[in-house]
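Progress report, Aim 2. The chain analyzed during this reporting quarter is listed below.
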Amino acid sequence: MREEFDHVIVGAGTAGCVLAHRLTEDPDVRVLLLEAGAGRIPQEVDDPTAWMRLLGSRIDWRYRSVPQPGLNGRVTREPRGKAPGGSSNLNLMMHVRGHALDFDNWAYQGAAGWSFRDVRQYFERIEAEWPTSDGGLGEPNPASRAFIDACVELGHPRVADFNSRPMRGVGWHRLDMAEGRRRGALASYLEPALARPNLTLRSNAQALRLVVIGGACVGVEYLQRPEPAGLKGRSVRDTHGEQPQAGIHQVYATGEVIVAAGAIESPKLLLLSGVGNPDHLREFGITVNAALPGVGENFHNHVLTAVMSESRTPVLAARQNLSESALFLSSTPGLPTPDLQLAFVHAPFDAEVAGEHPETVSILPGVVRPASRGWVRLAQADALAHPLVNPNYLGDRSDLERLVQGVKLAREITGTSAFSPWHKQELWPGPAVTSDEELRAFVRRTADSYHHHAGSCRMGTDDLSVVDPGLRVHGVRGLRVVDASVMPAVPSGNPNTAVAMIAERAADLIREGTHV
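Predicted structure tokens for the chain:
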């Protein structure tokens, strides 16, 4: 029997949860949400201090990059959420819109209608319905307060809210938490919608390919796996649907198929479905359904490293998310937006250091407007195989130089009188690392990322764009991509809030049946 829904959404991460919630507000619209991860959520997800333990767990896709030339050939971990709620189950819950000019830049790059003036109402909608907590109000770690005081001592302005202008300065993060618990996309959007009879969630259901016929996407082929035995945690499922039998199934959409699988899985699914660079597709014998050479290109991420200080003062146990305060600033005068973020974490950044020096705090300098661009490509024509992931960290020299500058700025903070109770000695980079060349070597040896993958199905109107400003895939009717992959450039801050904004706006576009 042919199974049909009005809309089929691939991926129950932040974007998929928002879309499922909004589209099913109309009781006449039937939505199927496919999620590759298991439908049982570990209890640690609710604990805002537990995110370190969740990285690499069963709710993480556990991707690895290809060797990174800018990092001396190192292979990096690239975590992505694999469960209802997606990466909002793993992140640090920082509620940061990004600078207004980030979105104006999207518009100038070909995403007309996505300027800050256009998207502001969606940020406000999110914040009105799901209020955030202030990291400075929930008994913050005293080391976090000392970080803010140290930045002020150096002359950096104190910012009341990073989501209001100006973003430049030091302050407390707003956190996606409520009553001391994580409040990600799962709790905010998906779970309230699961009681609706017009929403069906299928977990352990991995999309294999899109069904494209005559230039139109009409459905999704997916592999349904049985729920793994012995999993602990709470079950997330609708109250009315039944999981189909294990095996390969096809499901059809009378309206649209919406790919919301994230900046790694979304381009992979398009490529497996014959939507991408024809030369790359022919390598794997995949029939070309739409020649879009930009699929998988423009992939990028925020890059960071750490300055770690052994503390003179005992570091109190985590009370919130371990990272309550941050400093946003520009690497050089004259920039209209911050391009550096120095996040403070009252824990060791490196596991080996943690074992030898448990009373350690970390400042994480990061480049939040990276110039480096990489790609996501198929490793083989097997939908169950991980793709090749190349963020190209520090591939552009400017990212390296700005990250070195971030380390110097972090050292200025640790040298203040306000921070002195928390700085007994520098463990990373260490007092022997002094010259610019030594700092460059340190950065190449230690840099990692914020896990803010974006850009691989870029929105625009040029030849390398993948979706138009309405998020419709060029050359394929009935198909949209809605997640961080459509961002022309990742916002200059933690981007989960911007992903929710994209999905909020996409839901309106889909309901209206119009382009921007």
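The chain has twelve helices and 28 strands. The radius of gyration is 22 Å. These observations will guide the mutagenesis work planned for the next reporting period.
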